[in-house]
Amino acid sequence: MKKWNYNHTIYACFLGYIIQAINNNFAPLLFLRFQTTFELSIQHIALITTLNFIVQLLVDLAAMWFVDRIGYRASAILANAFSVIGLSGLAYFPAFFANPFNGILLAVVMYAIGGGLLEVALTPLVESCPSERKEAAMSLSHSFYCWGHVAVVLLSTVFFAVFGIDNWRILAVLWAVLPICNIWLFMRVPIAKSVGENGTSFGIKKLFSLKQFWLLAALMVFSGASEQAAGQWASAYAEAVLHMPKIIGDLAGPLLFAAMMGLTRVFYGKYSAKLKPEKAILLAGVLCLFSYLLISLTGNVTVGFVGFALCGISVAIFWPGTISVAAKNVRGGGTAMFAFLALAGDVGCTMGPTFVGIVSERFNDSLQTGFFAASIFPLGLILGLLWYRRMRRRNRGLA
Fold it and tell me: What single DSSP character describes residue 94?
């Protein structure tokens, strides 16, 4: 058998990002099905997304202290194991409870633990693998989250069209096969030493004393909120606002959003050496704000989908771009930095969809009003980045 090398490690990370996308984006395709099958309100549906990301951020927080101790291999294997339990649990757990919704929530907790561990482990794993272009590798790896999102929407839609949406439980079990495969991969691939494992990180206390770190964390909050507010509600928006049939709505809503994210991250990874990440993030923030206004102020099908396409393009740069800026400017942050930035991102991922759901329900289930209110997230990112750039100019060499 061919010898395992660090390319295989990166491939395993790519698959890990795909699995993370499945964890985050499979259940939203079933939101309306859950509403009718289990008689759930829109607040119940919003709680699924909220719980997912709250659990992920709690795992991110805990990971600052235990990931370096148990190692990245064990962390990655555990992450995939919890993903298997959670995804397959969507099919089985509801039958174990008098209130099936509690079974759904238990499955969400399981795959959210897996998603949180994947988020903490994958970034430093990619960063630690020998590579001359770290920013390109980081952006390319994050693009696989988008391709995972595309795959889960496209393949799920095909499955529903062929076998019927009533068989969604079978599909949940089929998606659980991928993390099983990734467990096998992570048991074999080489794992490079991370900054934290080498003992050269400067510790949480110093990290938390850096003002620029907290600004970067704020950018991650706005990044996660901007991305997931659109990504988690795209399918429901296409059905409820644009009055599209579910199959067409899923293909033209979430799929379009995710595909544009993936293509943009591949492009950004290829040309990242020629682009200044802070300027790229700022331009993307302006585009994201514009896209949210398009989504919220129109009921026109074409304009609405253009809005989601532009949103996918813009948010693609936020997360990997901010991580790259942090890795470059806050050297020595180690596992704690990556874990806390992931936590901040998940705070945003929790806030964004939940905020849209709460505002929408307050205004007679108007998703357009929810999206208009959520435009505060890209606006916050723009203002935060301008503040960060001003601080960097005044404090060159601080970190």
Answer: G
